[in-house]
């Protein structure tokens, strides 16, 4: 059994086929799906999809890419929905200096506000980080309740920072890039990381793994990511499946039938 710990079933490329995507993924052993929002509209859709399917859970929040356009009422809506029975985390939140460097201060402000909500409502965080490793680490270190967990989704930082994040009670999640031929850093992390600190995800519809790179990603392709990690670590596919499944259930406090 496996869980796609980060998928955008609410994306316009996937939502029209959501029934088919879920069915085909289940045929490949995917037991549950963590559908992640990135602004108010997509978070509302994540809640709707989670209400439609028992095996789908919702993560709601505001992505750093939306920092320049979010409104305070969006945060009010977010807080009002954090007690929804299918909401399992706040996300995806964080910092992205690759696309949005000019809004650095607003990103930090939004990130901190949502971490504070996570602390108040005792929820884990799903963190997006791109070209902002040190600032992301310092904010989490300063503001996140140490008892609460979270995940560095589709981790793109260095191996040297992995311990920094896991010491803050965060998991590291690997996605399609670990299967790319020249992706040295994700492969190094896959080799060195403890299974107890690891999650897997597709981040669909983005970052389809080999041999489907460049195509629309789907949860059914999660098996390629797991297979690559198993080969890198020289362990069985079943061991990677079992560990990442248990880690995901623990992180999001899932009750899977």
What would a concise description of this structure say?
The chain is α/β, with parallel strands linked by helices and 257 residues long. The chain contains 10 helices and 8 strands.
Helix content: 40-55%
The H-level CATH homologous superfamily, spelled out, is Metal-dependent hydrolases
Read across the widest sheet, the strand sequence of neighbours is 1-2-3-4-5-6-7-8
Radius of gyration: 17 Å
Between the first and last Cα atoms, what is the distance in angstroms?
Answer: 12 Å
Distinct helical segment count: 10
Shape: globular
Instruction: Give me the count of strands.
Output: 8
CATH fold type: TIM Barrel
Chain-averaged pLDDT = 97
Q: CATH architecture, please?
A: Alpha-Beta Barrel
N-to-C series of helices and strands: EHEHEHEHHEHEHEHEHH
Outline the structure in words:
Strands 1-2-3-4-5-6-7-8 form an eight-stranded parallel β-sheet. It is α/β, with parallel strands linked by helices and 257 residues long. The protein has helices spanning 18-27, 40-52, 72-80, 97-100, 104-121, 133-143, 159-166, 184-192, 222-233, 237-252, and strands at 2-7, 30-36, 56-60, 87-96, 125-130, 150-152, 170-174, 198-200. It has a single domain, classed as Metal-dependent hydrolases (TIM Barrel, Alpha-Beta Barrel). Helix 9 (222-233) packs across helix 10 (237-252). 43% of the residues lie in helices and 18% in strands. It contains ten helices and eight strands. Strand 1 (2-7), helix 1 and strand 2 (30-36) form a beta-alpha-beta unit.
């Amino acid at each position: 059994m496996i869980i796609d710990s980060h998928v955008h079933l609410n994306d316009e490329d996937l939502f029209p086929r959501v029934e088919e995507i879920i069915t085909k993924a289940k045929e490949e052993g995917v037991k549950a799906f963590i559908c992640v929002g990135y602004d108010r509209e997509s978070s509302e859709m994540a809640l709707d999809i989670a209400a439609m399917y028992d095996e789908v859970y919702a993560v709601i929040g505001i992505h750093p890419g939306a920092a320049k356009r979010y409104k305070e009422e969006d945060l009010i809506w977010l807080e009002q929905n954090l007690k929804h029975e299918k909401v399992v985390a706040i996300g995806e939140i964080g910092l992205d200096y690759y696309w949005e460097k000019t809004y650095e201060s607003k990103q930090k402000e939004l990130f901190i506000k949502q971490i504070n909500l996570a602390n108040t409502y005792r929820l884990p965080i799903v963190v997006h980080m791109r070209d902002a490793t040190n600032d992301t680490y310092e904010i989490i270190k300063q503001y996140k309740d140490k008892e609460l967990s979270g995940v560095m989704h589709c981790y793109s930082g260095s191996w040297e920072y992995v311990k920094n994040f896991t010491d803050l009670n965060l998991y590291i999640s690997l996605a399609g890039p670990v299967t790319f031929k020249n992706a040295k850093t994700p492969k190094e992390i896959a080799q060195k990381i403890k299974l107890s600190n690891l999650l897997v995800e597709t981040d669909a519809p983005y970052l389809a793994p080999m041999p489907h790179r460049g195509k629309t990603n789907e949860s059914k392709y999660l098996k390629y990511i797991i297979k690559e990690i198993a080969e890198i670590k020289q362990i069985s596919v079943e061991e990677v499946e079992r560990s990442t499944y248990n880690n995901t259930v623990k992180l999001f406090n899932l009750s899977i039938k």
